[in-house]
Amino acid sequence: MPVKCPHFVKVMLPSHVAGGFWLGLPSTFCHKHIGTSDQTIILEDETGGKFKTTYLGHKMGLSAGWRGFSIHHHLLEGDVLVFQKVRAHEFKVYIVKPNGSKKLKCPDHAEDSQMASVTTCSIPTTSDLSEDILYIDNYDGITESEEDMFNYIDDYEAGAESEDDIVPEFFKGAGLSESSVTSCIEKFKIIFNGCNINSQIPKLVLKKYYELCRSQNSYLHENLLESLNSQLVAGLISETVNIADATKFCKITTEESEFSTWDKTLQASEMLGMNVGFMRRRASKLASLAAESKTYKDARLAREQEEAEFRVRLADFLKEKDKADREGSEKSVQVAASFKQVTNVPPW
To answer: Is the dihedral of CA 166, 169, 174, 179 positive or negative?
Structure first.
């Protein structure tokens, strides 16, 4: 599967797995990668089984066929599904179960027939989560030439393993690399399921991710679920870097909805095992300060509006007062003239 396959994550809610069996998809993803026309979408599970579903463009979700997929895979509230678009009307779906005792098989590569059996870890409940949890659009927003951005190593893609890619046994695991981050970026390796996946990540993203890990002196991916595949891990790392950049360069005028989107994305990454709590706290602090600034700005604008309205009312008042003063002055002159006229008339 190409590294650039767009993908998103959905946490199953009651409406997804019971009753109406309706699965709404992230609107941003739909507009960019699916469209608004009704169509048939094929869902392929980890074992290669394919299921036809009906996508309703005006509602941006899956209807007919989704019930069969859900029942066939015994989906329950809290299950996490990763959707990767592999063809125009086809998605590869990976299922992560919250039950720690249940075994899950998931391929590390879509083209790799070897299946790895793993035990999933505990996943938080979804009662307080939004439906659209995570949408990863790969490497949007990174400014570097395509040649540099997607310069993957041929030997790696062919399956060759260099001496540097061999990982000591005590480092092997879901994402465990080393106890602390090396101070030399040339020695920085992202290890997932015992494999070095540096070659699957663009150079600029890798450099920024290294800086993030150094800031925390830990590998942010070291607790990722083993059931994930390396392409999704590369996407998670890319999205983490994108959000780090976004929070670094955001402004006090950034919309609340953007902070909310970043938080939901980071929350989903946390559920999959990424250590991004520090980024959520940073985004939350920025959102709080931006909201406070907006409150003051709104109050100032309200005062300015009140002042403007007061000035209008004052101008109207002064205009009426001037008119009343003129009319009063004219009447006073007329009354004085009439009075004088009366006094000059002889009473006899």
So the answer is: negative
Query: How many other CB atoms sit within 10 Å of the CB of residue 247?
Result: 19
Report residue 111 as tokens: 């083209």
Angstrom CA distances, 344 to 279, 296, 332, 336, 340, stand at 96, 71, 19, 13, 6
Three-state SS sequence of the chain: CCCCCCEEEEECCHHHHCCCCCEECCHHHHHHHHCCCCEEEEEECCCCCEEEEEEECCCCEECCCHHHHHHHCCCCCCCEEEEEEEECCEEEEEEECCCCCCEEEECCCCCCCCCEEEECCCCCCCCCCCCCCEEECCCCCCCCCHHHHCCCCHHHHCCCCCHHHCCCHHHCCCCCCCCCCCCCHHHCCCEECCEECHHHCCHHHHHHHHHHHHHHCCCCCCCCCCCCCHHHHHHHHHHHHHHHHHHHHCCCCCCHHHHHHHHHHHHHHHHCCCCCHHHHHHHHHHHHHHHHHHHHHHHHHHHHHHHHHHHHHHHHHHHHHHHHHHHHHHHHHHHHHHHHHHHHCCCC
Q: What is the mean pLDDT of residues 173-194?
A: 72
Residue 286 corresponds to which tokens in the numbers above? 């920025």
Q: 310-314, long-range: CB within 8 Å, 24+ apart, which pairs?
A: none
Which of the four pLDDT bands, split at 50, 70 and 90, describes residue 99? low
Above 90 in pLDDT, residue 52? yes
Q: CA–CA separation, 209 vs 231, rounded Å?
A: 16
Name the pTM for this structure: 0.50
| Radius of gyration for the alpha carbons in the chain, expressed in angstroms and rounded | 32
Phi, psi torsion values for 312, nearest 5 degrees: -65, -45
